[in-house]
Amino acid sequence: MSENENELAWREIPCVEFNLIQAVFQTTACFSSLSLVVSFVLFMRAYIYPPSFTSSLHHLSATSPPSLTTMAFTFIFCFIPPFLFIFLFHSLLLHFFKPNRPKLPLPPGTMGWPYIGETFHLYSQNPNVFFASKQKRYGSIFKTHILGCPCVMISSPDAAKFVLVTKSHLFKPTFPASKERMLGKQAIFFNQGPYHAKLRKLVLRAFMPDSIKNIVPNIESIAKHSLHSLQGRLITTFQEMKTYTFNVALLSIFQKDDQVLYREDLKRCYYILEKGYNSMPINLPGTLFNKSMKARKEIAQILAKIISTRRQTKQVDCNDLLGSFMSDKEGLTDEQIADNVISVIFAARDTTASVLTWIIKYLGENPSVLQAVSEEQEAIMRGKEEQELSWEDTKKMPLTSRVIQETLRVASILSFTFREAVEDVEYEGYLIPKGWKVLPLFRNIHHSPEIFPDPQKFDPSRFEVAPKPNTFMPFGSGTHSCPGNELAKLEIMVLLHHLTTKYRWSMVGSNSGIQYGPFALPQNGLPIRLVKK
Ligand code: HEM
């Protein structure tokens, strides 16, 4: 569909306001026609048949023509009211709804083939090339059609703020049905309003600095153990980082004892479950989806056991996510807890593992930055009696923090997020129709040369100055922004501390490619060889 066909598209789109006007007009027309028919019948009856139905028309009959006064009287009472009714009602409608006001155009862009839209165009290449070329051609707001949905993509900081923060109530989160069934429809991602606010409060309570500072020693022990088990081997970085971030996620959700007891079972079930995330939602024996749903049930049973043990042993105030869910006064049901525990694992694991994989790649490619990070990390331990990291130590890592920020910017592992307009929305003179998907393109913002000069270059020093508001959103923004961002940064720092002070690594094979699955990742998950220093 071309830009010039916007007007046509406008007529095709579902629009609440015009549907309403149509409905009201049709109702009025029905009533008016009915009144006219009734009036006509009354009038005719008054002349043709003997009067029997009203006392006022008592003397009228077909054989004795009525007087002029009677005719005028009948006309005024039978014909004028319906006409007045029609006239007044239509004037009111025109006044309030103004159907002839200038119609808003859709954003520029093309919609591709019917139903398929531009899906192949998007996925036959690096998706970021698609987004960047569209932005170059149409500007920071454009329309397209992917995965069976008409979409509006936005790539300016102001537009992202509009959708995610200031007008977030006009845009609801939206996910494929299979994902919703896998994670559970009561999970934090899929909800809005008071239930979402309550969940958010509980999740944030478990992941705020005051809560996670207590688990630094446990995270450190997981990091040390992971790195130790990898030394001397050729490893796929992403796979190994997933194991690390999975273990940290379990630690933050359950107390240490719970997770040690059930870790292997939870891991086994979760690994089956995740295989079904992007499968067709066909629940027949043998399908990936079916296996995933069974694994999901098993996770819920394990959780029910943990919850029941905690209730029996009166451990309801634990400082972890499960404790936060269980201590809620109004109480979450076991099902709500299961949906949200599974969702947090989903949100926490691959994201953080992808970022760690990119950091290892960028540090490997930038020896001077790696050298500076190693020195910063060694300095923390110098002069310390106990060789364990503390929460305070993690606050003495400014360069490491900038490396994490710059990696989050360059890699932009979540290139965009999805929302859906809950009503027709006007933005900068364009119409975003109800039901259309809206995609804030984080990656385009992070790669804008006006905001971040020489955007492809890995340069942590650019974060010596804080970025302008809404220009850096690796953890999203607004009501659904990432509540786990402090934990993610903490576990990355702890792992980097041990990696840079005790190990060396070399990348194996070609490392220039990027794969998407769905997060952006170095080709083949970045194979490396890790050795002790
Ligand atoms: C570097 C790693 C991470 C990145 C880049 C990241 C990024 C994001 C982003 C961009 C969103 C917002 C999505 C949207 O607006 O649609 C989000 C939401 C979320 N993240 Fe993270 N995340 C990371 C790690 C974590 C961790 C470690 C946890 C939990 C421990 C977590 C839990 C969540 C949850 C529960 C949500 C949904 C919040 C809501 O809907 O209210 N994330 N994350």
UniProtKB/TrEMBL annotation:
<keyword id="KW-0560">Oxidoreductase</keyword>
<comment type="similarity">
    <text>Belongs to the cytochrome P450 family.</text>
</comment>
<dbReference type="GO" id="GO:0020037">
    <property type="term" value="F:heme binding"/>
</dbReference>
<feature type="binding site" description="axial binding residue">
    <location>
        <position position="482"/>
    </location>
    <ligand>
        <name>heme</name>
    </ligand>
</feature>
<dbReference type="InterPro" id="IPR001128">
    <property type="entry name" value="Cyt_P450"/>
</dbReference>
<dbReference type="InterPro" id="IPR017972">
    <property type="entry name" value="Cyt_P450_CS"/>
</dbReference>
<keyword id="KW-0472">Membrane</keyword>
<dbReference type="Pfam" id="PF00067">
    <property type="entry name" value="p450"/>
</dbReference>
<keyword id="KW-0408">Iron</keyword>
<protein>
    <submittedName>
        <fullName>Abscisic acid 8'-hydroxylase CYP707A2</fullName>
    </submittedName>
</protein>
<dbReference type="GO" id="GO:0010295">
    <property type="term" value="F:(+)-abscisic acid 8'-hydroxylase activity"/>
</dbReference>
<dbReference type="GO" id="GO:0016020">
    <property type="term" value="C:membrane"/>
</dbReference>
<dbReference type="InterPro" id="IPR036396">
    <property type="entry name" value="Cyt_P450_sf"/>
</dbReference>
<keyword id="KW-1133">Transmembrane helix</keyword>
<dbReference type="InterPro" id="IPR002401">
    <property type="entry name" value="Cyt_P450_E_grp-I"/>
</dbReference>
<keyword id="KW-0479">Metal-binding</keyword>
<dbReference type="GO" id="GO:0016125">
    <property type="term" value="P:sterol metabolic process"/>
</dbReference>
<feature type="transmembrane region" description="Helical">
    <location>
        <begin position="20"/>
        <end position="48"/>
    </location>
</feature>
<keyword id="KW-0503">Monooxygenase</keyword>
<feature type="transmembrane region" description="Helical">
    <location>
        <begin position="68"/>
        <end position="94"/>
    </location>
</feature>
<keyword id="KW-0349">Heme</keyword>
<dbReference type="GO" id="GO:0009687">
    <property type="term" value="P:abscisic acid metabolic process"/>
</dbReference>
<dbReference type="GO" id="GO:0005506">
    <property type="term" value="F:iron ion binding"/>
</dbReference>
<keyword id="KW-0812">Transmembrane</keyword>
